[in-house]
Design brief:
There is one protein chain. By secondary structure, the protein is an alpha+beta fold. The chain is about 55% helix and about 10% strand. The two termini are about 15 Å apart.
Length: about 350
C-alpha cells in the first residue's frame, strides 16, 4: 500500500488530537442502552457489530451488559462507525422508535408510576443521565400555552447530531405515548440542522409541524398535557423507583469523579509511569478499591493510561518541536523503540508516519 493511502486509512484515529478537554468526554459513566438498541437492529440486518468496537476495549457481549459503562468518546465513535456501515437514512428515527418503556429501565418505571404526565416529564429530565442519554436535556416554557423539551449536544459533532436528535425525540415520543396514550401529539419539532432527504419521515412519525434550520433543538408540547393523570400511577412504587434513580445518579457522579481524578493525576505524571497502586495512594484509596471503582464505571487503569499517553503523544507530534525519542520520554518511555511499538498499538501507525503530511 502506498504511504499516502496508508496514512489516509489511519487518518480517523488522528481525531484524538482534537478530543475535547472536558472530562465528561472520556469518563466512562454512560450506560450502553442506546448502543444495545443499535446493535440489536444491526443483528436483525445481519450487520457485524464487532468492527465498530475495534480499539475501544469493548466486546459485543458487553454492549448488552447493564453493568457496563462507556465514555462519550467511545459511544460517539461506535455511532459514527455504525452510521457509516449501515448507511440508511433516518436510522436515528428507527433506533428511537424501537425503544419502549422497558428500555428506560428503572427511570421508565418511575415515570410510569408518577401521578401526572408533567411529573413523569420532570423525572425523565432529572434522571436522563442514568438511561445513557447522549444529549443534555432541560425543560423550558416558551409561553403559557406551551412547554418545550430542549436538547443540547454535549459536544460539537455534526456527523452524529442528526442521529442523536432523532433518537432522543423519537424515543421521547414513544415513551410519552406509552404513558398518556397513542393520541399524544406534539405541537412542533424544531431542529438546528438542514432538512435531510428523509424529512417526510419526521412528519409521519411525530404528526406535527417540523422546522429544520431552527435556532435550537426542541420538542414543543401543549401545556394541557402536563396535568393529565396517569392510569399507571402507584405512589409506593413511585417512591421506590425514585429512590433507586437517585442512587444510580449518585453512583454515576461518584464514578465520574474517580475517573476524572485518575486522569488528572496521570496527565500531570505521564513521564513518571505511575502505577495503579501509586495513583490509589494519592487518592487515599487502596489499590483494590480503586480498581473496583474503575471497574464499576467500565474502565481499566491500563486503558486510561494508554489513552492519555496516546493523546499526549499525538499533541506533541502535531506541535513538531520534539523528536520521537523526546516525545517517548514525555509519555514515560525511555526506550524509543518501545515507544514506537506502543504508539503503533495505540494508533495503528508509527510516530514518523503520523507526523508526515499525507500526499
Amino acid at each position: 500500500m502506498p504511504r499516502s493511502a496508508a496514512l489516509k486509512a489511519h487518518r480517523p484515529k488522528v481525531a484524538a488530537r482534537t478530543a475535547p478537554a472536558d472530562a465528561r468526554y472520556t469518563a466512562a459513566v454512560i450506560p450502553t442502552t442506546i448502543l444495545a438498541v443499535i446493535a440489536q437492529l444491526a443483528d436483525a440486518d445481519g450487520a457485524a457489530v464487532e468492527p465498530w468496537l475495534a480499539g475501544l476495549g469493548l466486546t459485543r457481549a458487553q454492549i448488552d451488559d447493564a453493568s457496563v459503562r462507556v465514555s462519550y468518546r467511545q459511544a460517539s465513535l461506535i455511532i459514527r462507525r455504525a452510521l457509516r456501515a449501515i448507511g440508511r437514512s433516518g436510522f436515528g428515527l428507527e433506533v428511537g422508535a424501537h425503544q419502549s418503556n422497558g428500555t428506560f429501565g428503572i427511570m421508565g418505571l418511575a415515570m410510569m408510576t408518577a401521578r401526572t404526565f408533567g411529573d413523569a416529564v420532570a423525572i425523565g429530565v432529572e434522571f436522563a443521565e442514568i438511561t445513557g442519554a447522549l444529549m443534555d436535556v432541560e425543560i423550558e416554557t416558551p409561553n403559557e400555552h406551551e412547554v418545550a423539551l430542549l436538547a443540547r449536544p454535549r459536544f460539537p459533532d455534526e456527523e452524529i447530531l442528526g442521529f442523536l436528535c432523532e433518537e432522543l425525540f423519537a424515543s421521547t415520543l414513544n415513551l410519552a405515548r406509552s404513558l398518556v396514550g397513542p393520541g399524544f401529539r406534539p405541537e412542533r419539532l424544531e431542529l438546528t440542522y438542514p432538512a435531510p432527504r428523509h424529512a417526510a419521515d419526521y412528519r409521519r412519525l411525530f404528526g406535527c409541524e417540523v422546522r429544520f434550520g431552527a435556532p435550537r433543538n426542541r420538542l414543543i408540547v401543549a401545556t394541557h398535557w402536563l396535568g393529565r393523570r396517569l392510569p399507571t400511577h402507584h405512589p409506593v412504587s413511585a417512591q421506590q423507583a425514585l429512590a433507586i434513580c437517585r442512587e444510580q445518579a449518585a453512583q454515576i457522579q461518584r464514578q465520574s469523579e474517580v475517573t476524572a481524578s485518575v486522569e488528572r493525576i496521570l496527565r500531570r505524571r505521564l513521564a513518571e509511569q505511575p502505577t495503579l497502586g501509586e495513583v490509589a495512594q494519592m487518592l487515599n484509596l487502596s489499590e483494590r478499591t480503586l480498581r473496583r471503582q474503575l471497574a464499576h464505571s467500565g474502565r481499566v487503569y491500563r486503558e486510561i493510561h494508554d489513552q492519555l499517553r496516546a493523546e499526549r503523544a499525538l499533541e506533541l507530534l502535531t506541535a513538531g518541536a520534539l523528536s520521537v525519542a523526546e516525545i517517548g520520554c514525555e509519555v514515560g518511555y525511555s526506550d524509543a523503540r518501545e515507544f514506537r511499538r506502543a504508539f503503533k498499538r495505540w494508533t495503528g501507525t508509527t510516530p514518523t508516519a503520523m507526523r508526515q503530511p499525507a500526499d
